[in-house]
Amino acid sequence: MRSSYAMFFETIRQDIVYALRAMRRNPAFTATALAALAIGIGANSAIFSVIDAVLLKPLVYPDPDHIAYFFVTTPAGPSYGASATKFNELRKQTSIFQDVSAYEFNGAQLNVTGGALPEQIHGIRVSEAYFRLFGAPVIQGRTFTGDEDRPNGDRVVVISYGLWQRRFGGDPGQIGQTISLGGAAWTVIGVLGPKFDTGLDTPPDVWLPFQIDPASNDNAQYFNIAARLKPNVTFAQATARLQRASLEFRERFPNIMGPRDSFAVQPLYEGIVSDVRPSLLVLAGAVSFVLLIACANVANLLLVRASGRKREMAIRAAVGASRGRIMRQLLIESVVLSIAGGGLGLTAGLLGVRTLLAINPGDIPRISAAGATVHVDWRLLAFTAALSLFTGILFGLVPALEGSRSDITTTLKESGGRSGYSRRQSRTRAVLVVGEVALAIVLVLSAALLIRSFFALRAVNPGFDPHNVITMRMSLAGSRFQKTPELALLIRSAVHRMEAIPGVSRAAVSYSLPLEGIYGVPFNILGRTPASGQYDGRGWMGVSPGYFDVFRIPILRGRGFNERDDAAEAPVAIINQAMSRKFWTHGDPLADRVLLGRGYGPEFAEPPRQIIGIAADVHDTGLNRDPVPAVYVPLAQITDGITALASRAGSLAWVARTKVEPHSLRSPIEAELQKATGGLPVAHVRSMDEVLVQSTARADFNMSLLATFGCSALLLAAIGIYGLMAYSVRQRTQELGIRMALGASARHVRNMIVLQGMRLTACGIALGMISSLGLTRLIAGFLFGVRTSDPVAFALVPVLLGSVALFAVWLPAQRATRVDPVDALRSE
Predict the structure, then answer these.
(1) What is the reported pTM?
(2) Is 163 within 8 Å of 206 (Cβ atoms)?
């Protein structure tokens, strides 16, 4: 038995050695096949590394399958985010949850002063159960207690390993010491380990206690809620119980939830990846098309080569080799070729991963900005090895079956070493070429549609002028600027300082920038309260005078804000066109007053505001979304509660229109802001042109990848057609020589070869066009300003692929015209 196993492995070794020699004897064939395989396998390896990090790897938290993520179901779809009132409601559900945790998803920039140079760091507020729920590793000290997480609890903070090392040199004595955050003293009580994964786009430097009041009536939504299910409780059971709780909640807060809204939970993993999963799966499907094209390509090359090895296979059979033995030899040759291509593909895939990380839009979950979660590991190596093996069998099976069917007697009677074509082989090769052209059409068409979307997005008028505008963020957390009068005084002083800088024409401040989202606050029109109790205004923006001038947003009616619109004057507001169109189909908005934030909590309680102007629409939530109804209010007139809430949960955006290149004035603007604020640092300095580019980063990412796959498909199709025709010309040397000896002209031979290749190309294009009508619907959600059946793309792509195919066919056709009839006949 042992001897038979040894003989078997010896024959396998011999087959591998023979396969390597065959690859070396046919360098042109080997290079063509390896190029196709490297492209196909490399692209799949690159995409798999991202999909593995985002979709396949389990979360690193304790028992992650039982961590529930809270959201609200609405007729328009799931609504994520939570308020203090909803958090308190979930804390009551002790029969289904434990470790109910609130944590901010954006957090705030905090100023660290004292000791080293002042800097802005990122901090989030979390409830006491957060560290227990997510299994945060504490390497020094401890985390919050329940008493510290109650209102008016001690000011304690847990810091990250990175901040501990960077600012405090990893000193264990830092535990128990105080640091200045936002002008207030906080006691460091713990340090988390370096490998703790928060799942947030910007990893926090510090964690502060949320200290949510159990009796709070605050309905502002600006954080997440997660909890662990009790043992033996399913997500369906938890959601059913929460549906009953939502009825009770609606009775307490009738203006907060719609009549068909309801509480629900889902696995935390689903909440993290639900937004990005469709695009990654589409990319995975696209890259699998690239691999199929590569397989068809190589299979066709193997079939062409097999026609020249029929005599070899017949001799093997004549000396006793069984059909199975011949098939095994041919399959091993295919697998060896595929593994070699897989090795090259893995190298190409690693380079592809680096490229992916370079163009990463930054909003793909579970991938840090530096791409630390995407790297080469055993999973990627195993995937590439398995894919190489599968690919070798896939493209090698048909040629192996064909090659093992040689008719010994007929083949050995042939005079030459190059056998002619069989109809069966010709049909198989034709089907493979048609198939790879059809797949290429689908990919190139999808890429063309996304490229059309790319230009359509660039053609959208954002509603403001982004050129020559610089922006920078500043945290005003702490007690110093939690009152509106102090904030208004700071803004006035800082803006005057900025506008005194040579090269600055206008300056202003706001809580958010165009294209980066807008706060959602409901409102009432005095005298026109709807049946539901309030209107959903969707947009709220606090701005200073000059904001509309900086961004050159036209005031279409009425007036803009000025410095007289402060706390001493009557409250005023400006609405945008979208709000005017939606809520004032009849009547004059400038004759009405609005009441903002009613029912959202005491922080939002304010008197009615007179509408004094209508501003042009701005795409605050993205170029690919219509402008939402929005209300602008002067920062000097907002309530102290909103000012305090904004100082804790966000930062101010300073903006300035310049007469020169914006970044050239960065240093003098920073210097004046630090003088006005007493040395507070600024961060996240960008021009609005950069903000505009970043707003379309996800769409650009999808477009870049599909365009890359489309180009790869186009290249593979060209390689396939060229390789097929080149080998066909080589195998038909005798036939072509006879034709030319009998009087056929070079032009006739060339046209014959060209027509043969273009006939297959035309069939592939037709099949691909028909398939694309259905398959391109899968990317409908990624398109903007273009239909999936866009006539421009459907007209240009076939022309493009046909032109590439014509070039690929022309080269071997031209070579066929140089066949010497005498040499061709002598070769046989």
Answers:
(1) 0.80
(2) yes
